[in-house]
């Protein structure tokens, strides 16, 4: 609650047009990485990684943590960025929710991903989609 009160003066200053909106820092890309922000995943993304990546992109846009199956174990993380290396690998940059440590995961090694109900306040700029929060698809009956 103290965090809320601490930033409130900044919010009112911004609302009155006396200051620009604060910008979040980016997770710094490696020297051989480019950020992927397109609405449609590049064709070079491995086919079996596409479904988990769409789950991850939905979660990121809505600031929800993801349970990621990777290398035979599950880890909960805050997803932030998808990047491609000069070697052609796609890498997910995220923060482990249990330790707060920055980690990167090769998407071709992701086994599964599921959205959790645990929300997060972004520590960095979320770069996984070109738009903001995404709506949940509803089926018409």
Concise structural overview:
Helix content is 21%, strand content 32%. The chain has helices at 2-15, 47-61; strands spanning 33-35, 64-70, 73-85, 90-96, 102-106, 110-119.
Task: Note down, in words, how this protein is organized.
- This protein has 141 residues and is α+β, with helices and mostly antiparallel strands.
- It has one domain.
- Helix content is 21%, strand content 32%.
- It contains two helices and six strands, in the order H-E-H-E-E-E-E-E.
- Strands 1, 2, 3, 4, 5 and 6 form a six-stranded antiparallel β-sheet that branches.
- A hairpin with a 5-residue loop joins strand 4 (90-96) and strand 5 (102-106).
- The longest helix is centred in the middle third of the chain and has 15 residues, at 47-61.
- It starts with a helix and ends in a 22-residue tail after the last strand.
What is the CA-atom radius of gyration, in angstroms?
17 Å
Spatial shape? globular
Q: How would you spell out the order of helices and strands?
A: HEHEEEEE
Largest sheet: 6 strands, antiparallel
Unreliable residue runs = 137-141
Mean pLDDT: 84
- Tell me the number of structural domains: 1
Number of strands: 6
User: Structural class given helices, strands, pairing?
Assistant: alpha+beta
Helical fraction: 10-25%
Total helices: the number is: 2
**What percent strand?**
25-35%
